[in-house]
């Protein structure tokens, strides 16, 4: 059955790029509501922004959604990954500014907050997007593909010049709470030279060594070092899960990302929905539902860092 959060979960922090204080509240919502953000700092007009692929404005550094009135919400990928990974299908997310709080740079604080409130089942069946035929998009930077598969599985490859990251590959079946155990505590990462460049251009103003993994050559500058030896590729997979959840329903298929990022994953969803024979909306029976991310998640499995 479809789900929502049992009661409101509140998160306070700052926006990664704006540096502005941000309060976000995930609230329960009825069946078939989906995931929607509401800008509480805006008093007039249409202030609700659906977290959907066709509302995404292509940006390289984060996932930003914009409604028809021009109201936007930025950096939604980590909370979207948490909602997907916890099996939350419906939520209204109040936000008092233009950017989701970055917290520790991972999805773990969102997962802990959601699981502390609990999940409520609703009187409606889950619908999933079943991939029926391969679709792929490519740019000079990399490529991404969706193809038929059991449940949601993911392959990801990254390659960075800094020895602290280097080349990393990971494959993961996201069923049975794997997101919570394996990915949710992996933080966003960047190179020190990129930080300097972004801040000169008015970006990453809320970034610190505590809410991002910052590397310089073979050195990890963030205190405490890495949470996982392959934390970078795990975070890329976390981002991809959040971006895929803007499909509007869980996806049943296999995702491959080769040097992919937010823009490529959104282009991939646009290609999928532009190819009617490549997908169908499927009502989930118990067998299919058991393969979705979020099914079988236990609070005890949340990493202690959150």
TrEMBL record:
Biological process (GO), any one: lipid A biosynthetic process
NCBIfam families assigned: lpxC (TIGR00325)
Originating gene: lpxC
Catalytic activity: a UDP-3-O-[(3R)-3-hydroxyacyl]-N-acetyl-alpha-D-glucosamine + H2O = a UDP-3-O-[(3R)-3-hydroxyacyl]-alpha-D-glucosamine + acetate
Record lineage: Bacteria, Pseudomonadati, Pseudomonadota, Alphaproteobacteria, Rhodobacterales
A single Gene Ontology CC term: membrane
Cofactor(s) needed for function: Zn(2+)
UniProt keyword Hydrolase, yes or no: yes
Residue numbers annotated as active site: 262
Organism of derivation: Salipiger marinus
Annotated positions binding Zn(2+): 78, 235, 239
Family label: Belongs to the LpxC family.
Keywords, sorted A to Z: Hydrolase, Lipid A biosynthesis, Lipid biosynthesis, Lipid metabolism, Metal-binding, Zinc
Protein name in UniProt: UDP-3-O-acyl-N-acetylglucosamine deacetylase
Pathways involved: Glycolipid biosynthesis; lipid IV(A) biosynthesis; lipid IV(A) from (3R)-3-hydroxytetradecanoyl-[acyl-carrier-protein] and UDP-N-acetyl-alpha-D-glucosamine: step 2/6
